[in-house]
Amino acid sequence: MNTVTATLADGNTIEYIPELIGEGGMKQVYFTADKSAVLCFYKDHSAGSDLNRMARLEAILGRFNPTLDPKTGEYFKKLFCWPTGIVIQPHLGIIAPTYPENYFFTTGSWAGKEKESTWFVRPKLRQLLPTEEAGTWLNYFKICILLARAVRRMHQAGLAHSDLSNKNILIDPSSGQCVVIDIDSLVVPDLFPPDVLGTRGYIAPEVLSTIHLPLNDSKRKSPSANTDQHALAVLIYQYLLGRHPLEGPKIHPASSAEEQERLEMGSKALFIENPTDHSNRPQNLHVPYTALGSHLSKLFERSFVKGLHLVQERPAAIEWERGLLKTWDLLFPCRNSYCPSKWFILHDTTNVRCPFCGSKPKGSIPILRLRSQRRPGQWLLDGQLVVYHNLSLFKWHVFDHLRPGEEADRTPQAYFAFHQGQWLLINQNLSSLTSPKGNAVPPKSAVQLEDGVQFRLSQEPHGRIVEVQMLHV
Ligand SMILES: [Zn+2]
Fold first, then answer.
1. What stretch(es) of the chain map to CATH 3.30.200?
2. CA–CA separation, 286 vs 133, rounded Å?
3. CA of 392 to the centre of ligand 1 (A)
4. pLDDT tens-digit readout, 378-419
5. Does CATH number 1.10.510.10 belong to domain 102-327?
6. I want to staple 41 with a disulfide (CB 3.0 to 4.6 A). Which of 93, 147, 305, 388 is the partner?
């Protein structure tokens, strides 16, 4: 195999195969000789003399790079396809890791294609996919958490993606993983302006409605962390509900298809589920966003009702991450074998029903209210956990200062079981679990869950108490 030598900005060289394997709007892509990485050359050869671009790449690879963090870098390497080097010869480009294999289709006419989110969020395309690739609803939920976490981390580092869209996020719904790609065009606010305005369907309304203004007009809005927040909300809505939040039946008087699009996604954008203005509401709205529970409902309302045209109302990525995690604790399995989702959010205890298939579970369901001590003797409700057989309890449930983020200890501390007509919490690793009567419950012993009982998950500082509500349905 013939290979060609490329020179990196740090003086090292790398061999690559001079056979084009892919091409985007701005770059041409080649494999390195060992295929562990790709070289992406900018098509615009004058990019090499563009000092701004060089400085931006150095910033993205260096001081803004979350994959270099000694504690959490490895975790985020899985969520980002972060460039690892700058190529200067034969011309300017970057080196990035090759996408892991699970992000390529393996069957049929799709074999070898990258799993862009587009395939999964467009109902018509999704129908064409082999069933093993389409994934489960629960895996889309996992993808939402990981994506919110990735965007949160990027924003924490002081970066904005500027083109978050179904094209720049690869997802693997069969395993519930995702990776953010095209990192080299990230925006460092106030330092490097964006190259692109975004992708159709994900550009924030304020960007689209000021697109006609001259570049130096102060009213013109550019991609930023705020516009990422809009794109993130659109993606989460699409992953969880399988439709676009702004694509409804409403027709705006326009002189061209382009103008129609600019109005529909820009100045006249209207949430299809707007609670008061129903003019963009599709007829076959099967599962409304409110079926996802109060945490996510509030975030969708801030994104698409209040914050659609008022950027400061939009939830930050960290709020999405928290809201999704709180909602994760309300998941309940649907026993209907024909259910398209197999899981739903049990948020309405007065009407327990799967919104995806309409079936109602039967039996008793323990709901744990988690309380943490804010002042001596004052226990504040700060979480809720819907219990099902074999559910695990983790440290972030037990202690109020821990979060299920990138640094979390994912060792189960205890698990729930329905055994001989009783609901039990079986201790595995909790050192000071205490029964409702105040007795120590060592590992391998259990606390019985009954309506109205209270007990401590830990006697250590930050340990929570739980209060059990037994739901009979
Ligand atoms: Zn169901």
1. 1-71+83-98
2. 23
3. 22
4. 999 999 999 999 999 999 999 999 999 999 999 999 999 999
5. yes
6. 93
